[in-house]
Amino acid sequence: MSHAIPLTTNNGNALNSRAPLKVAIIGGGLVGSLAALSFARRGHEVHLYEYREDIRRAELVQGRSINLALSQRGRKALAEVGLEQEVLATAIPMRGRMLHDIKGNRTVVIYDPCTNQCLYSVGRKYLNEVLLNAGEKFPNIHRHFEHKLNYVNFNEGRMEFKRAPSKEIVEDNADLIVGCDGAFSTVRQQMVRAPGFNYSQEYIEHGYLELCIPAKDGEFQMPENYLHIWPRDEFMMIALPNQDKSFTVTLSMPFKVFKTIRSSEDLLNFFHKYYADAVPLIGKERLIKDFFKSRPQHLVSVKCYPYHYGSKALILGDAAHAMVPYYGQGLNAGMEDCTLLLSLFNQPNLSTAEILEQFTELRWRDAHAICDLAMYNYVEMRDLTKRLSFRWRKWLDTQLFRWFPNFWVPLYNSVSFTSMPYSQCIANRKWQDKLLQNVLISASLAFVAMTAFKYYGGFQTITL
Ligand SMILES: Cc1cc2nc3c(=O)[nH]c(=O)nc-3n(C[C@H](O)[C@H](O)[C@H](O)COP(=O)(O)OP(=O)(O)OC[C@H]3O[C@@H](n4cnc5c(N)ncnc54)[C@H](O)[C@@H]3O)c2cc1C
């Protein structure tokens, strides 16, 4: 057990009434650096182990997606550690989807015309830096970059790391090991061996590749306050704005389609056919260079249960519930994990074992639900958004939300702009669908009855 450390925040408020633990956070990505900060604020002795070099010193950041859509759950978690405003100050609000059809026509679908809530495009590197910098104020956070976790013994709380570049093996131990080491988590791999641990993963047959629409004359080339989507049935492209006035473009499509594009000519033909309006924005040369410079990345969805091992270990973020990125919720859900976990740590009567057990029980349904929703939204984004039925439903949802804001919260709003448990968001949508279906059936029956009445002069005529 570590020595006692101040149980106060920067402004002197006591945050913790339990004995401080030595907590090892594995993974200094977005969720790991937030978790480190959250534990440190409660006075725990935190050791943050990260495989890569310090992102603040790295010139080229290897990793997924340059920018991310931050929404309510992530904002709430950032607010809890006093960082929401700092992050939002440089984030770019995205008020809706701007759909680009195959002819280059653009249509705007506002996310929330009733209360004007929006998503925020934030740089992954910037967000990680803000979280790590905030941790510098806490002497009880010890950072260990270039330490790759190799092995964990949960019962003994013992961990083994390989240091880069020397490959020296380093050992440490902790009271609590928190795996925030992403979709291919080593901590989770060790948990899988424990009896009773259920685990499933699914790779989708689509991959993604990042391109860029650069700034032109120091300005954005498209309206910046939207998430741009080019829905094309089997595949799609999206673009999020960056601070430097460029857009990061993510092209998603089946690997088998990627494989058909072998030459610059194939690529330009493909883009002229499906994304003609994007070609002058990206620029032909840049398109060819960026497309062939990297290979399409795989996307995996992970579900598991439980998230803890006794009183010794826990997994959070992508380590616990990696999902396909199409609801823009992976990070938001991971940050919400921290909110829930630390709210349990605030309950003085719970032991660490009880906290971890409750975390699993309170979280798994919602984590599984958002993995499912993310899969569903992939279909919605690439296909449904351009259908009339989708737009009609969006219009109806908006009207009902406007009239009954406490009763009728549309699915997208509940996921992105509230902290409603994800499983409840799905349940809500189910009863809304049922209600609309019943109204539609009743309206159709009424219409048939009225038509019959008009043509046959009354119901008796029909029955005779
Ligand atoms: C293309 C794409 C777009 C996305 N867009 C969005 C979005 O708009 N909104 C959103 O909310 N989410 C989005 N996501 C999801 C989001 O990126 C993840 O949910 C989020 O990064 C998860 O954070 P994490 O800290 O759990 O894991 P990661 O970000 O993967 O971080 C894990 C960290 O652990 C380290 N690590 C791994 N193994 C070890 C080891 N053995 N020892 C030590 N350290 C280790 C890694 O180096 C890394 O730094 C997107 C994902 C993708 C792929």
TrEMBL record:
Cofactors required: FAD
GO cellular component, one term: mitochondrial outer membrane
Pfam hit, one: FAD_binding_3
Biological pathway: Cofactor biosynthesis; NAD(+) biosynthesis; quinolinate from L-kynurenine: step 1/3
Enzyme Commission numbers on file: 1.14.13.9
Group of enzyme by EC: oxidoreductase
Lineage top rank: taxon: Eukaryota
Name recorded for this polypeptide: Kynurenine 3-monooxygenase
